[in-house]
Amino acid sequence: MFPLHSKGVEQELNFSSSPGMRRCRGLNLRALRWSQAMIFFINEINRNPDLLPNITLGYRLYDTCWLVALSMRTALSVVSQPIKRSQTGACLAPTVPLIIGDSGSTLSITISRLLNLFKIPMVSYFASCACLSDKKQFPYFFRTVPSDSFQASAVARLIKHLGWSWVGMLGTDDDYGYTATGMCTAELTRLGVCVAFHIIIPKVPSVQQIQGIVKTIQDSTARVLVCFATEEEIEPVMEEVVRQNVTGRQWVASEAWITSTLMSTTYPSLVGTIGFAISRATIPGLQKFLHNLRPLAEPYNPSAREFWETQFSCSFNKSKPVGSMADAVHYNRTCTGEERIEDTETAYNDVSQLRVTYNVHKAVYAAAQALHNLFMCQRDESTTDKTTMTQKSFEDMTLRFVKVGHFDSSLPADQQLLLHQDIMWHDGSKEVPVSVCTASCAPGYRKATRKGEPLCCHDCVPCAEGTFSSSIDQSECTLCPEDLWSSPQRDSCVDKHIEFLSYTEGFGMALAAMAILGIVATMTVASIFLRHRDTPLVRANNSELSFLLLLSLTLCFLCALTFLGQPTRWACPLRRTAFGLTFALCLSCLLSKTLVVLMAFKATLPGNNMARWFRPPQQRLGVFLCSALQCVICITWLTTAPPYPVKNTWLYRDRIVLECHMGSVALFSCVLGYIGCLAVFCFILAFLARKLPDNFNEAKFITFSMLIFCAVWITFIPAYVSSPGKFTVAVEIFAILASGFGVLLCIFVPKCYIIIFIPEKNTKKYLMSQSVGR
Fold first, then answer.
1. How do 24-27 and 5-8 pair as beta strands?
2. Which residues, 6+ apart, have CB-to-CB distance to 595 below 8 Å?
3. Nearest-angstrom CA–CA distance, 592 and 586
4. What is this structure's pTM?
5. 3-state secondary structure of 737
6. CB-based burial label for 39 (10 Å; 0-12, 13-18, 19+)
7. Is the bond preceding residue 219 a cis peptide, omega within 30 degrees?
């Protein structure tokens, strides 16, 4: 059973008369070669004395025209032969014990189900549908062509190997097309390849259907087209592709048309087409046998006439078609009958790609060998085959089929597909064409799927800050480690910027300058007081406490400098303890000076001898005890839970802030609380002493200084909490400097002004006169 014609002629069925013989059109020279090759093989077997000795094989050739109806009629004609009986009366087997065919999967499925009822074996040379491997449904079906399951897997693996992720799929409207495209699509999906469209090519397509198919191909962004079809069914699509000049497409052909000489010579635009072909072979003597078919030149034989006119593109009679030639083509040249087949190059006598022909050879010889073994009571062993990968190319306008690799399913998975690198593609270059829905996402981007579209269609979204992608087509960006940050290109992680209040930056330099200014100002005041230490103004305000207070202010300004620079395991404890001790000493001195003022005033009252309990030794002891208590708290803090440097990675995502952790928050609160208590107590006493006589008016200045001190540190708390990063340290330094300058300016500047600019007031007489005036 061979499809000697490509199509059938539509018949009008009126149900009033019996339909005539089904007519066909479009002589298929390739299938004609298969049928003649079968005759050649049978003749070889009959001449072989070692194969089926004393038995002659016969045959009947049927033209199925790719029609299910004709294939079924052929099968019925085989099984409905008259039953013969032996001499003993037993029923004999039919004359035809085996069928070679059919070429199409749908045809084979249809007639195989019928032949199963009569247990007649069928060997197909071209039916590759994977469904035919089901031995429960088709126990008597055999074939010499690989199943489509291997081809579908091989095509999918090839597409994945070449980096194509966006392909179009075409298949015929039969079991072969549906099964092959379905299996290939499933395998492509498993491998992460998307199918842009799925087109079914009708058996008898209209012009509008063909144009619609080509429009879909042209409008799609898929540049790789996979087609499971026969040459007869893909031919009208290719005609329209050429007519509309659709170029820039890479075709991946199935085994049914990858080596079709008719397609390749008719449509040179298919150069570069790649696909898996059936294994081929060289058959000695076949070409000569095909050339010697001289009886076909008989012009009065309709079949011979049709072949002759098709083979040589000439006509015997321009007036009337005969026989099955319902749509015979009339040629301008007249046939003479003397033409020679060997002088032409057509699909009939082309023996360079004997692939399906080789399958026919295997089918015929498998049947003969089975019969031989049956007679000899032997069993044959099955053989396996491998599929080669073939490409079409043109050199000097000469068609060539080139083997560029192979797929062997019997090998390990990583060795099954072998592809050569030197391949010429559709555009004539050797660079693999690109077929993707969207370009690959470069490092630094991630794939974001588009709603309602396949996974292969995506947008490239830049990685967010703190994340990166180091390779192409990453679905998600990777989060950088805690101490790293994404690079500007988002393709790697780099060290985060380390941030702390440094001497080298402008803000740090300004704070350092203010601290140094405070130190210089304090030392200037101290030098003025030292130079005028014997004057009544200096002596009247307890010069010893004044110098001790100036020392504590100098230490406070120096303490501010320790807050600048990188926090270390030594700098952090020094900052906190220096702050606590210097301010405790400063406030202790102020408290003593306030008490001195009060005691001095009380001593002027009759019968009051409290002043003798608050002389300089007692004053020094009071300062020492107040400072010692703070020292005890600091020592406890340093020995139990001292401050330490930490990397603050939670405040900012893109940088690390180096800061000092308190260690023990409770002990730090004790240090601040003690300083606050001293300041409040000092402020209360100074406020009570603010209306004493003018010569003892230092209490007013202490009141103002404590007012500034408390205001600074009260506003410090919300500013400290709300300031981020290194600005927290800046707020702390500013509070230290502001409170230090407040004490320095309120207490010592007025006295320095009198000492320098109004020396006449710096006399005992003036001070006493102020007292008497009061």
1. antiparallel
2. 614, 619, 622, 685
3. 10
4. 0.64
5. helix
6. middle
7. no
